[in-house]
Amino acid sequence: MTAHVRLCRLLLAAAASALALAMPGAAAELNPAALAYKLPDQIKWNPPSAAGAQNAVLVGDPSKPGLYIVLNKWLKGDHFSRPHFHPNDRFITVLGGTWWMGSGATFDPDHSVSLPAGTFVTHFGKQVHWDGAKAEDASLLIVGDGPGTSTQVEPATGRFTSLDPAAVAYILPDQYKWRDPTGAAGTNQVVLHGDPTKTGLYVVLNRFKPGNFSKPHFHPNDRFITVVKGTWWVATGNKVDKDNMVPMPSGSFVTHFGKQVHWDGAKDEEAWVLIVGEGPGTLTLVEEAR
Q1: 22 pLDDT exceeds 70?
Q2: 5, containing H or E segment
Q3: d(CA 29, CA 79)
Q4: Angle at 117 between CA 164 and CA 223, to 5 degrees
Q5: Rounded to 5 degrees, what angle do the CA atoms 42, 55, 104 make?
Q6: What is this structure's pTM?
């Protein structure tokens, strides 16, 4: 073996070691049958549209029947959709920035309603609305049953005065009804849509205080999770080893596959995760490995 070949092999080995150290999960193994994930820089965004928005489809196909989950970003610079409607209800969480909203055909962005990060919005099917961003980007997670097509309506001029509750409903972050309103619980939850104990689409927000973890368990159906705050730590199987977990930073998208064992929680900082699924989303504990 020549000195040049030896040097190349040493460099390749060093590069592989550095990559392994840099990759989340390198120190832990996740069962791909139980859990899949995309880190923020692995999410494939479509190019910005002429209207000033871009999206990334995470689950399903919005043009077809069935559950879909889409990330949407309105780019800053007074970019707005024009009045339109969708055939079915859509459930939207403002992940970042301020989203501006109006309803009806009167298109008047100057008097639109501001919805800060953390707001949960329902767009009711066949009801006209419009929305966008002003001075900052607005990032959204949109959930619905397809098709999620958009039908334009003729804009009207005039002054917009208020949101029509038949078209748009919203919950501000300070209006959340947490399961433990005192905030003392190590793991707390607010149900934003549906009922996780029953059949049908549900959306819940879970909040893990530092040092709180679930026990090994599984759910009957797939669950789709977006990390909205902090770092969420995940693991698969029934062996609890908190030194052998994978960190999911804010913006990560995780799929927990139905009937597969996993556990998760927060370490040094609070972690908030938005969970979407088709109910029932019941939890079955399994015996921990010794």
Answers
A1: no
A2: helix 3-22
A3: 43
A4: 95
A5: 155
A6: 0.89
